[in-house]
Each structure stands twice: as structure tokens, then as C-alpha cells.
Amino acid sequence: MAVSERAKAVGRHAALLAWTFVCLAPLGWLAFMSLKPPGKALELPPKWVFLPTVYNYLELANDPSFVTAFTNSVVSVTASVLIVLAIGIPGAYVLSRYDVPKKPDVLIWILSSRMLPPIAVVIPFFVIFRTFNLYDTIIGLVFMYVTINVALVVWVMKAFFDGIPQSLEEAAMVDGATRSQAFRKVVLPSALPGIISVAIISFIFAWIELLFSLILTNNRATTLSLAVYSFIGSRNIEWSMLAAASMTMIIPVLLLLVVANRYLASGLSFGAVLKE
Fold first, then answer.
1. Domain 54-275 has CATH 1.10.3720.10
2. Where are the domains of the chain?
3. How remote is the C-alpha of 99 from its chain's centroid?
4. Residue 136, by phi and psi: left (phi above 0), alpha (psi -120 to 50) or beta?
5. What confidence score (pLDDT) does residue 255 get?
6. What pLDDT is stored for residue 274 in this prediction?
7. What angle do CA 92, 95, 98 make, to 5 degrees?
8. CA 271, CA 158: separation in Å to the nearest integer?
């Protein structure tokens, strides 16, 4: 019996290892392409042993438009994450702890902002942005990213607050804390894994967004995803530069996931564990 269980475990690990290789192979191929000299990225047969070069990355660093796009993305995405947390976390707490009239309808209304495909609402947003002088501005991008992610934050954080016993807050208030102090000093620390999880997911959704950037920006507020897209020409594609630009977009997300991996794993499983 023990041998059979061990064989099953080895088989599962082997299958997971094989699937991990399948999933990471495109990323590894992209990294190899980004380290090859221009014109060598699509050599057939491909050369697995070569002298790597950072030429493509240096070219990107010396490209003012790419640096501007990278800066725009960092500023707009970071600001949007902070704002969406400031709006979504208190909103989720109110929906979790207070008897809000027609609460199910309110939750469905909030969720409905994520139901429509982006292509269905981009033209109305374009008209609104042109009317209020938000077109091709960082403020407009921040507003758009907040609109995209606020429903996610409210729904996920409400589940977290539902799983935190109200007795913790009641105990703090018995000891003399106000409702706001109990929220800040008891509830928020308990919900930290969820907060970090929704912050990372909101960051990723805004970081990789392309459609709204393509329609709602022009020159001043172009984003990193749009800068990567610009390397795809109508007749010729700069594969090495495209690979380097793509890796520049991927690396910050990977670093963020590595740093916050412990919080992300516990955060995504928190609600499911509580409901069992």
C-alpha cells in the first residue's frame, strides 16, 4: 500500500513538473530572444548556446519614449492601486458589517461594472474623457484603472471581512476603542493577506491593460503595454527588441509576486478555508 501511494505521489509530482515546464517554456524562450543580438532572435535552427548581450535592454533604456511609457505605467498603476484600496476596503467593510438596504442588489450593481466587455464601453469613455479634458492624461488613466478594479476589491475584501469574527472588534470596543480604531488596529491587520492579494491582482490588471491605453491616450500618457505593442510593425517586427520590451513588462510583476508570494497564497485561500 505504501509503495502504491509513493508511486502515485511520484506520478503527481512528475506530471506537475512537466506541466510547469510547459507553462514556463514560452517565458524562457522570450528571455533567450531578448538576450540575442538583433537579427539573431529567429535563427533556424535556434542556437541554445550563445553569448548573451544586454544590447536590446540598453537600447530600450536609451529610448525616451519607452522610458516615458514605463514611468507613466508605474505612476498611474501605483496611484490607481492606492486609490482603489482606499475606496474598496472601507466600502467592503460597510457592506460586510452594516445592514445596508438592498445589500444584494448593491453588490450585484458593483459587480456589473466588470460584466461588460471593455470594447463595449471604451467609446462612451472616450467621449467622457474628451468632454472633461481627461484624454491622454495620467489622471484619466488612473480613473480608468480604478473603475476597472474597484468591483474586484469590494467583492474579495467583503469575503475577508465576513470571515473575521465580529467578536474581535467587540472586544476592542469593550476595552475602550472606537469603531474606527477597532477597524484600523484589529480588522485591517487580520485582513492583511487579503489586502495584499487584491493589491497585487489590481496592479497586474492595470499593468497589462492595453485596449483603454490604445484608445484613451496618444502621446503624453502612453503606457508600457502600448510601448511594447509599438514594436509590432505593419511589415517588419523587431523580435529582439519586442522580446526585451516584453521582459521589461514581465519582470516587475514577477518580482512583486516573489516578494508577496506568502501573502498571496494565504490570501487567495483564506475565504475558502473559512467556509469549509
1. yes
2. 54-275
3. 31
4. left
5. 87
6. 40
7. 135
8. 10
Here the cell at position 230 is 509599438
pLDDT < 70 positions in the chain: 1-3, 233-235, 263-276
Cell of 67: 522610458
pLDDT, residue 202, reads 92
User: pTM of the predicted model, to two decimals?
Assistant: 0.84
Can you list the pairs that 48-52 forms with residues at least 24 positions away whose Cβ atoms lie under 8 Å? none
Q: Could you tell me the three cell numbers for 261?
A: 508570494
Q: What DSSP string describes 175-234?
A: TT--HHHHIIIIIHHHTHHHHHHHHHHHHHHHHT--HHHHHH-SSTT--HHHHHHTTB-S
- pLDDT number for residue 272: 40
Q: Which residues pair with 232 in a beta bridge?
A: 237
Per-residue pLDDT, 141: 92
Residues 6+ apart with CB under 8 A from 203: 77, 78, 81, 253, 256
pLDDT value for 1: 46
